[in-house]
Amino acid sequence: MSVGLDFQESRLSTTEPFESGNYKKALQEANKILKKTPNCTSAKALKALTLHRSGKITEANLLADELIKSYPTDESTLNVIMCYFRKTGQGEKIDEFLKRSLERSPNREDLLVCLFLHHVQERNFSAQQATARLLLQNSRQVRSTTGL
């Protein structure tokens, strides 16, 4: 079995108990993954969300704050982090996190799309316009460098 499939199976074993409401089992599975790969950001994000759902809010907030300081940019971690901050009513942290991630990698169209959609959910029209302009500039740069 390849490492990629092993990781997908372990991530699946974490999300299944979480989705069914078995937070104790989901926490055990997340800890198991973190023992094998301590820097796995998606497992840390799932653990923070699980801790929050199981009522350990202080511990969850500490883990989430530690996680966003590392500025992970993989899609699965982004989705869980944004879900966590939406559920905890900390929408301003999503905005801050995405903007800082874009400073580190400004040409990431997926991060710009996430930021745009966040502004749509927050009903921040001027920020939507600014992000849409950045997306347009980014797509023009890509077209000019690739010759499309």
CATH superfamily of the largest domain: Tetratricopeptide repeat domain
Tally of contiguous helical segments: 8
Second rung of CATH, namely the architecture of the largest domain: Alpha Horseshoe
Q: What's the CATH first level of the largest domain?
A: Mainly Alpha
Rg, please?
A: 17 Å
Distance separating the two termini: 40 Å
Q: Using the alpha-carbon principal axes, give the shape.
A: elongated
How much is the average pLDDT? 82
Decide which structural class fits the backbone: mainly alpha
Helices and strands, in order, run as HHHHHHHH
Query: Can you tell me the number of structural domains?
Result: 2
Report the CATH topology name of the largest domain.
Answer: Serine Threonine Protein Phosphatase 5, Tetratricopeptide repeat
Core attributes:
Serine Threonine Protein Phosphatase 5, Tetratricopeptide repeat; mainly alpha; 81% helix; elongated; 148 residues; 2 domains; disordered N terminus
Please give a structural write-up:
The protein is an all-alpha fold and 148 residues long. The protein folds into two domains: 3-90, Tetratricopeptide repeat domain (Serine Threonine Protein Phosphatase 5, Tetratricopeptide repeat), CATH 1.25.40; 106-148. Helices cover 81% and strands 0% of the residues. It contains eight helices and no strands. The protein starts with a helix and ends with a helix. 29% of the residues are buried.
